[in-house]
Amino acid sequence: MSDADLSADLARYQALVAAYEAIDERIDAFLASRGISLDKMSDADKLHYREMCRERDDVHNEMRALEQMLFGDDAG
User: Fold this and answer.
1) Residue 52 has pLDDT above 70, yes or no
2) How confident is the model at residue 76 (pLDDT cuts 50, 70, 90)?
3) Which of 15, 28, 39, 63 is most exposed, with minimal Cβ within 10 Å?
4) Domain count within the chain
5) Which domain holds residue 16?
6) What angle (nearest 5°) sits at the alpha carbon of residue 7, between those of residues 54 and 12?
7) Residue 54 has pLDDT above 80, yes or no
8) What's the 3-state SS for the chain?
9) How far apart are alpha carbons 62 and 15 in whole angstroms?
């Protein structure tokens, strides 16, 4: 892997971490704004919450795959 490739992969990883943290903050803010537990949310709110969680999970999976590519067995 060239230095340019490594730099691009590290920049991609940093972008993924930032995206993950932003989504996580949105989820926290959403839950705080509702002030209720999941089992008392409306169906629409539950759907929105699940969509945000799915988005966060997708970003997390991308992060893990990139870590595996960059660091091999030492990742995680």
Assistant:
1) yes
2) low
3) 39
4) 1
5) 3-74
6) 10
7) yes
8) CCHHHHHHHHHHHHHHHHHHHHHHHHHHHHHHHHCCCHHHCCHHHHHHHHHHHHHHHHHHHHHHHHHHHHHHHHCC
9) 11
CB 29 within 8 A of CB 7: no
Average pLDDT over residues 14-20: 97
- By residue count, the chain amounts to 76
User: How many Å apart are CA 1 and CA 67, to the nearest integer?
Assistant: 14
Q: From the CB of residue 16, how many other CB atoms can be counted at a distance below 10 Å? A: 19
- pLDDT value at residue 12: 96
Average pLDDT over residues 1-30: 93
Spell out the long-range contacts of 4-8 with Cβ–Cβ below 8 A and sequence spacing 24 or more.
6/70
